[in-house]
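Entry: Rieske domain-containing protein
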Amino acid sequence: MKNTGTETNMRDGANASIWQSALVDHTATNHSDYQEVYDALIIGGGITGLTTALLLQKQGKKCVLVEAKNLGFGTTGGTTAHLNTFLDTTYPEIDSDFSKETSSLIAEGTKKMIEMIRTNIQDLEIDADFEFKMAYLFSQNEKETKELQSILESSQAAGVTVTEASENGVPIPFERVVRFDNQAQFHPLKYIHGLAKEFEKLGGQIIEQTFIERTELHEDIHHAKSDQLILKAKNIVYATHIPPGINILSLRNAPYRSYVLAVKLNSGAYPDCLAYDMQEPYHYFRSHEIDGQKYLIIGGADHKTGHEDPLKAFEALEEYAKKYFDISEVSYQWSSQYYVPVDGLPYTGHLPGGDKGIYVATGFNGNGMILGSLSALLISDLILGKENPYEKLFSPSRLKPIAGFNEFVKENADVAYHFVADRFGAEIIKSTHELAKNDGKIVEFDGEKLALYKDETGKVTALNPVCTHAGCIVNWNPAEKTWDCPCHGGRFSITGKVLNGPPQKDLESVSLHEIASGNK
């Protein structure tokens, strides 16, 4: 389904997620006191930003939240909303790269976040479809089975409730399976709008459709500037999934896309669980009912942002789904972005190299509903001057000389490769007539390298293809109709507007007439 959500429920691509059809009973007031010095300015209207804002507002702080588009525009609106006590960074990996004590701390945090989300939904009377579920993780070959045994043992040692099971909850062959109890699922957009409603009820202020271009520190007060206004705050929280601009966190996090289908089944036998295989990349499953209609939600086919063919990723995911399920209709398909930290754990806390009072949260590795909530609790505690057991562990300034070193080298070598290689090999065209309608390409036209898109009417939009973040060349994403940077995950609209990622400036618009006439 194409992205036809309401103005308050749009997303960062051409494809709508299953959550966007929700009719939420909250609309941001979109005002603030421009003379006020806020205790905290939270930038980003996803689960991390809204949870942080509400936690601080509850403690008597005066906060304002600013969102460049609308609440849930980014990954929160595209998640599959699994709530787990096990993460993509497995407990054996945490044991090895950090410690067994760290695994226990992570396990405790994940359980607390599921309970916090459940409590928020109950206390604030949010109709967010929260349900506890069992989750099954299953192997399909000897290598995976050996890994699964290690996961079982380390998870149990960390304090996670997990046991061997005899079935995996989905009609897919398996060799061995374990069951995690007390997992959950919910409706992410209904949830964050419920948080937003309570935040404003307590005096918090929300401003949508406002992109913060830069911040400056004057006498211990941050001045955040957009093209419309200036906001002042003692603290700034970047809840934008990756902080903007050039900083060390762009080097320590690799951007990935994950693909999702929401399908109807002929049999009506929708799995009543969460399930995960162990392929690389792995597939994940759950069901959800929207307006009386059940859907099976299947995700997978992940790859680095700006790499590989998104259309082929969707095709591969659909082929996999149809192999095991009797699908009558693919009702929704969408993709979403996440960031993989080099050592496996989030970077949450003070921005390295940033001014005093600037906080970030990134590197959730596909577990943003849990780790975004846990990061919100950490940041709110830091601003409130409270101790928090995750402060040192999640510190963005931490240095792990062994853990993550190979990933750091690999990912940044990949960035260097694309910085150089993508400057060569563009298709040479003599006329924009060579470009198909509803298509985009990086081309060489009259000696200039351009990002060209032709819409269904034949109108051509030309952009400078150099990403405004670090100078890499963007690639066309034909599935989401966006320009995606293969280096640090910056994404831009057809017209060059920043959608998400670290860029702070839009792609430069180019006049084809000036190029053709030799005036550029």
